[in-house]
Amino acid sequence: MSDDNGSRDTEQIRAEIDHTRDELADTVEALAAKTDVKGRATQKAHEVQETTRARVQTLQETAKHRAQEAQESAKVHAMAAKVKVTEQTRQVTEQARQVGEQARIKGEAVAGQAKVKSEQARLAATERAHSAQETVQQQRQDRPWLLPALGAAAGLLTGALVWLRRRRNR
């Protein structure tokens, strides 16, 4: 039984030795890796480079996405502005049409009033002219001497003015 136990112990010891060798190899590799500054720096540079690439790609995608959102927003705002301008143009056009229609109606009313006033003025002037003519005819009948007397007075006045002017020029 000691052989069996002895061979087991030997196998067990060999297994432990192999296990210890593996652990020792791992430890040696870890220590070698820690002492390899250039390798560690290269590895760290690769890690930083990969991190930076990933970050740049993320930033580019974010910027592209935001640019697309801004473009879409600008399109929406432009369309809304176009609709608003179109509506305001329509409203202004309608208001201008209404004002023009009101001006036409008022113009026609003013023209009608002016025509009535003109007709009234013409009738009043005609009436006054007839009245004046009747007054003159009445005065001719009542004072037939008045018209020749006024003509004579006008002739005398004209003659006196001519005589005074000639006298001054001498």
Would you spell out the secondary-structure blueprint of this structure?
Layout: H1 2-35, H2 37-142, H3 146-169
Supply the number of structural domains. Answer: 1
Give me the secondary-structure category: mainly alpha
Helix count, DSSP H or I runs of 4 or more residues? 3
Strands, total number: 0
Approximate strand percentage = under 5%
What composes the largest sheet? none
Overall 3D form: rod-shaped
* Secondary-structure element series: HHH
What is the terminal separation in angstroms?
Answer: 186 Å
Low-confidence runs: none
Helix content: over 70%
**Average of pLDDT:** 88
The rounded Rg comes to 63 Å
Kindly list the characteristics that best describe this protein.
single chain, 170 residues, mainly alpha, 3 helices, 96% helix
Describe the structure.
Keywords: Membrane, Transmembrane, Transmembrane helix. The chain crosses the membrane at residues 145-164. It holds the Pfam family DUF3618. This protein has 170 residues and is mainly α. It has one domain (36-169). Helix content is 96%, strand content 0%. It has three helices and no strands. It has helices at 2-35, 37-142, 146-169. The longest helix is centred in the middle third of the chain and has 106 residues, at 37-142. It is rod-shaped, with a radius of gyration of 63 Å. The termini are far apart. The model has no long low-confidence stretch (mean pLDDT 88).
